[in-house]
Amino acid sequence: MALTYLERRGQIETYFDRTAADTWARLTSDAPVSRIRATVRAGRDRMRETLLSWLPLDLSGRRLLDAGCGTGALAVEAARRGAEVVAIDLSPTLVELAKERTPANLGSGRIDFRSGDMLDAGLGEFDHVVCMDSLIHYRSADVVAAVGTLALRTRHSIVFTFAPRTVPLATMHAVGRLFPRGDRAPAIEPVAEKTLRRGLSEAPALQGWQAGRTARIQSGFYQSQAFEITVR
């Protein structure tokens, strides 16, 4: 049975805040990791670089939401460009780790770390929103709904990732079930790009927005697709 956004959100919070907090702390550091996790680390690094490259080099005076900030690597780079970053994650444990890892000198930028729901309207309005691998656990309809909710409070662009529905990815999921449970992440929801594009184009909240760049990153057991939408 397909789970709703709220039901999946609870599962994901439990995983990242309790079950695998130590694993993700190592994965997002330079500590030695298994070969499987090393491919995930490399893929995530490439994806983060891709999403950052789609943002302005100078973010001075811009407000940015890092939705699903994890341990804060993207938030730090955005702040170094001058952005006022709100970095939020479901896991208080990862948010505390992100605070510990944040360098003292961010130049003119700053980061406001919070734990909670990235869709919370109380976070305010933004110029740019980044959702790196924070929507890959949701069905296409939930991804479209989440992006539409964020678009109502965003002035310029939203960049996010989804799990592309491909034969290689389906094969990797099947093989991944053979590995120790400690090497597994929460189940993701592969999404067909055509279905996603149609949903985005038909969403009432996204009228006035247009699809932009897209890029697929594959590194061993990591496969994710970046997608950009911008205000017309």
Strand content: 15-25%
The CATH homologous superfamily name equals Vaccinia Virus protein VP39
The biggest beta sheet, please?
A: 7 strands, mixed
Radius of gyration: 17 Å
- Number of domain modules: 1
Shape label: globular
**Number of helical regions:** 8
What would CATH call the architecture? 3-Layer(aba) Sandwich
Reading the helices and strands in chain order gives HHHEHEHEEHEHHEE
C-alpha end-to-end distance: 38 Å
| CATH-defined fold name | Rossmann fold
Q: Strand tally, please?
A: 7
Average pLDDT works out at: 90
Q: Which CATH C-level class is it?
A: Alpha Beta
- Residues in helix, %: 25-40%
The gist of it:
The chain is α/β, with parallel strands linked by helices and 232 residues long. The protein has eight helices and seven strands, in the order αααβαβαββαβααββ.
Explain the overall architecture:
The chain has helices spanning 5-19, 21-27, 35-53, 73-80, 92-101, 140-151, 167-176, 193-202; strands at 63-67, 84-89, 110-115, 126-131, 154-162, 209-219, 222-231. It is an alpha/beta fold. It has one domain (5-231): Rossmann fold (3-Layer(aba) Sandwich), CATH 3.40.50. The radius of gyration is 17 Å and the shape is globular. The relative contact order is 0.16. The mean pLDDT is 90.
